[in-house]
Every structure is written in C-alpha cells, then in structure tokens.
Amino acid sequence: MQLVQLIIPIEAAHRTISYLGDLGLFQFKDLNAEKSPFQRTYAAQLKRCGEMARKLRFFRDQMTKAGLSPPAWCSRSDGIDLDSLEVKLGELEAELIEMNANHDKLKHGYSELLEYKLVLQKAGEFFHSAQSSAAAQQKAVDAQYSTEGSIDSPLLLEQEMVTDPSKQVKLGYVSGLVLREKAMAFERILFRATRGNVFLRQSVVEELVIDPASGEEVEKNVFVVFFSGERAKNKITKICEAFGANLYPFKEDLGKQFQMITEACFFPFLVTGRLEELKTTIDVGLAHHSNLLQTIGYQFEHWNILKAGVLFLQQIRVAKYQEANPGVYTIITFPFLFAVMFGDWGHGICLSLATLYFIIREKKFSSQKLGDITEMTFGGRYVILMMALFSIYTGLIYNEFFSVPFELFGPSAYACRDLTCRDASTEGLVKVGPTYPFGVDPKWHGTRSELPFLNSLKMKMSILLGVAQMNLGIILSYFNAKFFQNEINICLFGYLSLLIIVKWCTGSQADLYHVMIYMFLSPTDDLGENQLFVGQKFLQILLLLSALVAVPWMLFPKPFLLKKQDQERHQGQSYALLHNSDDPLEMEPDHKSNSHEEFEFTEVFVHQLIHTIEFVLGAVSNTASYLRLWALSLAHSELSSVFYDKVLLLAWGFNNVIILIVGVVVFVCATVGVLLVMETLSAFLHALRLHWVEFQNKFYEGNGCKFQPFSFAQLKDDDE
C-alpha cells in the first residue's frame, strides 16, 4: 500500500473517476478537512447529487414494492449530461408521485364502493324481510277483522284512520360496516349511550373486506341502527367515528330507497358492473406504473453510478500500517500478569465461583437492568474467569491458600536444625529431602527465611516477566521499523535476565547488583567472584557499546533522510512513491495549499531528539515499572496473612464461641471486601497499565484506519 499524488485534468476527471470506481483499489484523501461542507468548492454540485440520490432511493423503493429489481449490470455510455439527468429524474419522480396518488384514490374509491355494495345487500335484506313480515301481519289483521265482524269494528277502524299523523313516531337509521372484533363493544356502547333507545341489527360478512383507510384485508360486520330523534343520531354518529366504522346511508326518500334495495337484492349486476369498471381502471394504471418502473430499472444502476461518480470526498487520517495486533497476546498475558499479583488459589477459587454464577445465569442477567458496577462485572465475566483460573495456577506455585501453605505435592525438602529454628535466621533450615516438586516449598512460609527466599524469587521473576513481555514487543516492533529504538532493552535488561537465569541454574553467589552497576562504571575491570560464565566481560563490553551506538542511531539518520527526500521532491520527483514512516510530521498533509512548504530541518531534528530522550528513559522506567508485580504480590500475601493470623487465629485462641463467630465474620468480610474486591480491582488496573504503556508502546499505536476504496460495487452494497 502506497500513498501517491494523482493529478487529473478537469476535462478527463469524470471518466477517470468512473474508471477508478470500477477498479475499486484507490482510496481518496480529503485535502479540505478543515472546511465545512458548505464552504467547499463543489458544495452546490454535491447538493444536487444528494437530491438525485434521494430520487434514486425513491425509485428503488417503488421497484421493491412492485417486486422488480434492477439488472446487476448495465452499459455505461460516454458524453453524460448531468443537467439532463437531473431534469429527467425530476420528471420521472413527479410522474410516479402522480400515478401513486391516482392509484391510491382509485383504490380507496373501489374499496368504498365494495363496502357500499355489501351494505346495500345486507341492509336490503333487513328491509326486505321487514316489509315482508309487515305485509303478512297486515293481511292477518285484515282477515281477522273480516271474519270477526261486529258492531264495534267499523268504529275502531275509522278511529285508527283518523289518528293525528303528527303524533306518529318517525324512526331514522344509520348503516355501515364495523370491525368484527369491535362489534360487541360497539353494541354495548350504543346501548349505554342511548339508554337502550336504539334498535341494532348486524350481519356477518363471510369474506374478507379491504378497509378503505388502511388498505388491509379485515373481517367486518354490516350494521343498521334505528333511532328516534336528532340527539340520538348525533350520539350514534360520534360512536361510529370513534370505532372507525364506515357509514353508508340510504336515501331518505322511500321510493329511491326501495329502488336501491331492489337493485341490490334483485339486480346486483348493476353495482358489480360499476365495480368492474373501476377495477379495470385500476389495472390499467398498475400496468402503466409497472412499465414506467421497468423503464427506470433498465437505467437505474447507470444513474446510480453516475450520481456517485461526480465527486467523492472522504476524510481519512494518515495510517500506520503493518502493526501487530496486541489482542492476540493480551488474551493470555493479561490474566497471567494479574494472577502474578493476585496469586492465591483460595482467593482464585472464590473469584471463579462468583464468575461462574454470572456465566450460568447470563440469560437472566442479560434481560435485566443492572447497576453500573454489576453491569461492568457481568460484561467482563469471561475475562474475570480467565483471571481467576490463572490466579489458582500462580497460587499453587506460591503455595498459598488464604496465606496458608499446604504440602499438596509432597513433603517439604527442609527441616529445622534445632528447636530454635523458628526464631533463627535463614541458616536455621537445612535440606533433608528431595526438592519440592511443584511451586514454593511450604517451609518457606512462616519463618524468617521467607524474606530472602520467597521475596527474592518474586522480585527476580517480575524482572524476567517484564523483560520477556517487553522483548516480545520489541520483536513485534520489527515490523514497523522500531526495532533499533528498543535496542537498549535487549542490551541491558535482556542481559540482566540472562544473569538471573544463569545464577539460578548454577547456584552461584554472584552479586548481580554489583555486576550491573560496575558494567557502566568500570566495564574493563576484572569481575572476580561475580563472574558467572566464560567470556562474560567481553559480552558486557559488546552490549554496552551496542547500547551507546543505539542513541546516535536513533537521533541522526532520520532527519537527514527526510531532508534528502524533500530535496528530491523539489528537483521534480514530486510523484515518487512516499514510503511508510513512523513520524506523523513526515506524513502531515498540507491543507492550506498544494504548494510545497519549506523544509524545517531544525524542527525535525529537535522533534527526533525528544523521541530519542523519551526512548532512552523509557528503557529504564518501563523495566522498573514491572516491579509492581513483586510489590502487589507481596502486599496481597501480607494482607492475607494479617487477616488469617491477627483475626481468625486470634479469635480461635480465646476458646469462646461468640468471639469465634465474630472473628469468622470479620475475617470473611475483610477477605471479600479487601482481598476479593479491592485487591482484584487494584491488580486489574496495574495489569492494564503494564499492557497499555510498557508493552504496547513498543510496537502499537493504533491510529490507522480501515482501507475503504472508492468502489461502485461497494456503494451498491451500502445502498442495499
């Protein structure tokens, strides 16, 4: 991957951009990052392209609804006129919007007419059956009067005929359709609102009905409500509106009413004919709509690519490539360094049990709202489980179970020389058996021998682990040209680690402090009893010279190389490939102008001098920082020992049940609160710092960005 400068003539810009978009291997860099979108030169063109993109998204949505898909490939023609394209897209959008509005209007009218047909049929059946029943009753009454003639009969008939018409009650009615799921509630509300002064008839519509408002197929009932009075009519109308019922009233005139009922019941083909005419109109509109979408689909991909290829701006940062991913190594090294500071297999078991509880019930906790601390702990449950398992491992090495040693892997190799051994110095222990097979010998705990042996072991082990992890970072830094900047670590502290291992293997009594100090003060003096192997003096001089050479090597070459590159660019090699560099000043883009700025050698040299001092000091401070492994491990062990000796054993010595219970409660609370919570958080933060600062600063900066080339294929996938 290389950074190059590409100059394109204006007349060939569009064709070149189209070619690069097809190729999909170039990523453009924004040279106007400090400007807002409205201050850019082509802001108006970008706004027009955005509007055309919106229209194209509208076309895609319409084609998706119609079940159409644009072809995956289209031919690209030359001589593209963006102004004509903008006008054409606007005309097509207006035509589609008008067609959609007409279609919705026709569909709504068709659904209303279909419902009206159902109302005419069902309500017509109501009225027809009512008229038939009334005629039958009238015939029965007439027949009764003719057969049971009496003196009073003519008088009664005459009285009925002369009744005042103004005193007769006139009934009104409202008809329509209501959702079947709301029919029962609709009937109850009508009854309560009118206090039972209505008569409701309902009929189930067997087939599904298309609702005019939503356009969905639903189940409905046809209803007719008979009422008396204008006040009741207003209440019924409001209730119908609340329930979303569609009202289709009959004519008030009885003659027209009879005509409509007759047509609905005996001549349904009249209404059906009107429905068929409307359906034909809708089908013709849909066919025209589909043809228009197919026409758009043939050119859609071409228009979409054209819209994207006009101008492409993307803000990116200067990336530093070829960096190793630290996450691969941190998966193991992070919980291990935590365990070095937290090593106690009793505490590790408690921590693992608490973490397993979160893991087993993770489905339940995932659906609950947890507190801040609990949610953070639950989110890192698998990392904490790894930390707990490694703590059990290092606790077995330290041979500490709540600070108590156990002879798990065999008897101790040491014994007291006499009865005063417990109060004697380290010389009070003598080796009487084979070496303890795994971890620290249990006799190293609880005596004054613990100070020189166990603590010395932890301190030197911290140095070895720190140097090993930093050297891993140095090896990884080789891939981004930082290897020589970390040469001091290898020459000095890598050599110290070698001396520690040799001393352990040979059992030498050499003073390593003396060796490292006089390596700098008197490198040519004889080592004497501090010599661990043949050729040690020559190796020390060689490593010291290498460390000294690394300082000017970091300081001088880079500024002169950058100055030489600047001179070559001014001599006409402006389009030479720019090689990767670790210095952000070298890769800083010029946002103000396209002309070359004057190279400031002094500024670059001072900048490199600061880097050199930083790495020389960091070689010492980073190694010393790993001694926190020893310090926190010692603090954890001592706190655990204090809680065990001064709380639990002290309470046990009183031979009192109440004091024993209080002591156990205090011991448990102190262990959980201090050792399992506070010490866990402390060791976690220190392990995090060792990885972020001491380990990753050797090889990882993490300021790169993903390569995102300008590609028409990628733009198509993003739109989808």
From TrEMBL:
The record's listing under InterPro entries reads:
V-ATPase_116kDa_su, V-type_ATPase_116kDa_su_euka
Q: Which UniProt keywords apply?
A: Coiled coil, Hydrogen ion transport, Ion transport, Membrane, Transmembrane, Transmembrane helix, Transport
Coiled-coil positions? 82-109
User: Record's Gene Ontology CC terms?
Assistant: vacuolar proton-transporting V-type ATPase, V0 domain
Localization per Swiss-Prot or TrEMBL: Membrane
Bilayer-crossing regions: 336-360, 381-398, 461-481, 493-518, 538-556, 657-678
What is a GO molecular function of this protein?
proton-transporting ATPase activity, rotational mechanism
Biological processes, Gene Ontology terms: vacuolar acidification
- Topology of the protein relative to the lipid bilayer: Multi-pass membrane protein
UniProt xrefs under Pfam families: V_ATPase_I (PF01496)
Q: Which family does it belong to?
A: Belongs to the V-ATPase 116 kDa subunit family.
The protein's role, per its UniProt record: Essential component of the vacuolar proton pump (V-ATPase), a multimeric enzyme that catalyzes the translocation of protons across the membranes. Required for assembly and activity of the V-ATPase.
What is the protein's given name? V-type proton ATPase subunit a
Q: What species is given as this protein's source?
A: Rubroshorea leprosula
